[in-house]
Amino acid sequence: xxxxxxxxxxxxxxxxxxxxxxxxxxxxxxxxxxxxxxxxxxxxxxxxxxxxxxxxxxxxxxxxxxxxxxxxxxxxxxxxxxxxxxxxxxxxxxxxxxxxxxxxxxxxxxxxxxxxxxxxxxxxxxxxxxxxxxxxx
Length: 137
Hints:
Layout: H1 2-12, E1 16-20, E2 26-29, H2 31-37, H3 42-48, E3 56-57, E4 60-61, H4 62-76, E5 78-86, E6 92-104, E7 107-116, H5 118-136
Antiparallel strand pairs: 1-2, 1-7, 3-4, 5-6, 6-7
């Protein structure tokens, strides 16, 4: 019964979730991750997720930043950060990522939860433009 509930909660989560093993290999993801990043299957996410990151996140190489955040999470238990990812359709996807260390028996995993920030960023931009128009008047 525990496995059934775990599976239901994993796939019912409205956030993209990607599970990493101790060597930071992707071992699973939920259906939301498939949809959010534009892939056709969980296997495609596992095979192509890393190649869809832009070369840099600000001034830091994406691969180096992700590795540092995964290591930090293994040591400290949690990490939250902004992450850009190329959607399969070609546009840039802005996300907030929360990494959580999970211990099961003697193994550690990392669950990466990503929240799409596009609606929030669009609303901020619309509010900024409205504020700017008000100041002009």
